[in-house]
Design a protein that fits this description.
By secondary structure, the protein is of the alpha+beta class. It contains 12 helices and 17 strands. Helix 1 crosses helix 12. The radius of gyration is 23 Å and the shape is elongated. The structure holds zinc ion (ZN).
Length: about 400
């Protein structure tokens, strides 16, 4: 079946994405951490584009950019983020913002198109200062105390100092107006290889995983690496290494089909070649879209820790640092994306969960939300080589705009 004609201006979408790639360029990607000079310039770039879509732009007190419409009729909120991970890719975030902008440019000034698309760029999705600070602020799930406590994980600069330095201190934070939006739609690169390996163009996101993060601390006895006999050692580092292996042995019997877990950082104290580590720490993460599965695994984790402690050499403490709720994407949004894919992507779409966190999971706590993915070449992301074929970018834009029209048409 031939694809239908779309009014999406593919060259304009690609030009916008490349303009953003030029702000904080690093090799073929970008380095645009939250509240850096290039990040602020990218927000300003968006502020200047929004009037083209008949939107009134504003940057709020936490660095969210929002474009509001005065057009009567239903309103759909759409967007993503403009800051990047350090020295990372050009599409992670900007793709969703530019698609939203393109949809707004086509739909908002058109008196024959029902309703309007309002555009958002959420601040700090990439977590330089915290977790989803911008979108959490918008849904009312971020307190001033949270902002007081937030610090840049690379530089240690406080969020308050950063907000003051970029001139946003004292501005009010925008809050979602109850009932204003029929929902939130976000496009993103897949950051995996499901689409590419299946020769597919569009991922229709069904759910976004919850991320639970832990600090697991092992306490033993620091001692001399030469004079302490093996039989009497209380080696916290060895206990930690065994624990990692035990997790990998035992989790598969209790996890779900797509559960993933990761030990992302290990620290030995004091961490010297001639000293038996007296304490050791690992940062550990579990992701799944089923809260019951994560709870079951946490229970297992705690019982495994209790077993090690009971053996008497080292004690283990498990502390949960982060409890991210999984989010289900709205059924009507999934149908709209699928129907749009049938028209503009030859039906080459698949329903799939998202293993990465996105602002849509925060918006989903207060309104219906949906997401679509476009393919990532080689599944690579959070790296400057991240890329997507231009043809896939344009197809994604056509599907996105069509999905917006369908949702606004009710
Ligand atoms: Zn992203």
């Amino acid at each position: 079946m031939p694809d239908h004609r779309s009014d999406v201006d593919g060259a304009r979408v690609l030009a916008d994405l490349n303009a953003l790639r030029g702000i904080g360029a690093y090799k073929t990607g970008v380095h645009r951490p939250t509240f850096s000079e290039p990040h602020m310039r990218s927000l300003e770039w968006l502020v200047q584009r929004l009037p083209e879509a008949a939107l009134v732009p504003a940057i709020d007190g936490i660095g969210n950019v929002l474009g509001s419409s005065t057009k009567p009729g239903p309103k759909l909120l759409a967007g993503s983020h403009l800051e990047s991970q350090n020295f990372a890719g050009w599409l992670d975030g900007p793709l969703g913002v530019v698609y939203a902008l393109e949809a707004a440019r086509l739909i908002n000034p058109d008196p024959n198109a029902n309703g309007a698309v309002e555009v958002a760029a959420w601040c700090d999705e990439e977590g330089h200062f915290g977790h989803f600070l911008g979108s959490r602020s918008y849904v009312g799930a971020l307190t001033d105390d949270d902002i007081d406590a937030a610090r840049d994980r690379s530089s240690g600069r406080t969020m308050r100092d950063a907000l003051r330095d970029v001139g946003l201190a004292g501005r009010s934070r925008a809050r979602a107006e109850p009932g204003r939006h029929i929902g939130y739609l976000e496009a993103h690169i897949e950051q995996g290889e499901t689409l590419e390996s299946g020769d597919l163009s569009i991922g229709v996101v069904t759910s976004i995983v919850g991320i639970w993060q832990y600090r697991i601390t092992f306490s033993g006895e620091q001692n001399h690496a030469g004079t302490t006999r093996m039989g009497v050692r209380k080696d916290a580092g060895l206990a930690l290494a065994r624990f990692c292996v035990a997790i990998d042995d035992r989790f598969p019997r209790h996890c779900g089909p797509r559960t993933v877990w990761t030990t992302g950082r290990i620290t030995l104290d004091p961490g010297a070649p001639s000293i038996i580590p007296g304490s050791a720490e690992m940062l550990f993460q579990i992701r799944d879209d089923d809260r019951d599965v994560i709870e079951r695994l946490e229970e297992l984790l705690r019982s495994m820790a209790a077993e090690v402690t009971a053996q008497g050499r080292c004690s283990v403490a498990v502390e949960r640092l982060r409890t991210g709720a999984p989010a289900m994407m709205d059924a009507a949004f999934q149908r709209a994306i699928e129907a749009a894919s049938a028209t503009f992507a030859g039906g080459r779409s698949i329903r799939m969960p998202s293993g990465a966190g996105h602002d849509a999971q925060i918006l989903a706590t207060i309104m219906p939300a949906g997401m679509l993915f476009v393919p990532s070449i080689g599944g690579i992301s959070h790296h400057w080589t991240e890329n997507t074929d231009d043809a896939d970018i344009v197809t994604g834009a056509r599907v996105f705009v069509e999905a917006c029209r369908r949702l606004l048409a009710g």
